[in-house]
Structures are given as structure tokens and as C-alpha cells.
Design a protein that fits this description.
192 residues, alpha+beta, Beta Polymerase, domain 2, 2 domains, 3-stranded antiparallel sheet, elongated
Length: 192
Amino acid sequence: MIEKFFISKVRVKILKLFLLHINSTYHVREIVRQLNEEINAVRRILRSLEEIKFLVSEKNGNRVYYSLNKNFVFFIELFSLINKEYGIGGRIIKHKGKIGNVRIALLSNSYINNKRKNPQEIDLLIIGSNINYVYLEKIVKDAEDEIGREINYTYLSPTEFDNSKKKNDLFISNVIFKSKIMLIGDEEDLYK
């Protein structure tokens, strides 16, 4: 679907590469190999993304390395788009019926920033019933393999979630009141 909004498939591949691996740095030939695209097309797009400050570059020897600028004005919006189409978000949305009766699914602030302040922080929260735990675990494992890092996730029944909110549980409060990307459900559903 994203390809319908962005004219260049190479541009979409580059956005996907950097937004699914937000702490990674790549040199041009490495990007060409990973994307299996022509070097001139890749270079042209990298330059245009650097011009708008989406990417930053650093020269090291005879190589130029590119990395994502997390302070880019539309970082969260692009991160959200890519992660709803690809990666764990895309998998959750695409397979929500097979996962179970999912009322809410979200990517947390720790996932967005690729940082956990403590081991209890989660990247993915799913609230629903009749969850197929084996299928969910496979989806998460596939996404972990794709992005090259662990995804800390949890699932709660609607009753468990409501009880945690009533108790002002710190775990739930941290997820609800910090930045997040809603995959399934509406943000207002978190506060009901």
C-alpha cells in the first residue's frame, strides 16, 4: 500500500531499511546490496533524503555512511507509516484475525526510540481475548529476525487491562501516557 503513495519503489525500500533499523548506519554499496537496486538510483535518493535532513552522512575514508536523523520533523509520522505496513506492526495488522479478538495493539515509546530504561518496559502491547499465543509468538519472532533485535511484548485481556488502569498500575500508565503508535484500536479506547 505504501508504494501507492510514494512513486519510487527504491525510495520505499530505503525508508523501510532506515525506519526498521533506526540505529543502523550504512554505506552506499551496502544499501545497494541489501536492496538489490542500481547504485545510481540509490545514490540519487540518498542525496535527496539527506537534503531534506531525513538522513545524515559521515565520510570515513573513501566511504560515505548514512544514518537516520531521529530529529527529522516527520520522523514519527514516517516511522508510524512504515511500521504499520512492515515489521511487527504490519504483521499484527495483517494477521489480527488469526491472533485472536484484538481490541488494541500498540507500539510503545521504548519501541519507537529503540531504548528500554528497564527490562520491564515493553515494545508491543496487545489487549484482547482468545489470543492464539503460539501464533503471536511466531509473528514476533519473525519480526525480531527482520529487524535484528528483541521485541519485548505482552498481552492482556480487556479485564486485566481495565483492572490495571483502575489500580493506576505504573506499567500500564507508562505505556498509555507516553508516545505510542496505535496499530489496532483508537487511542481513546485506552482511556475508557
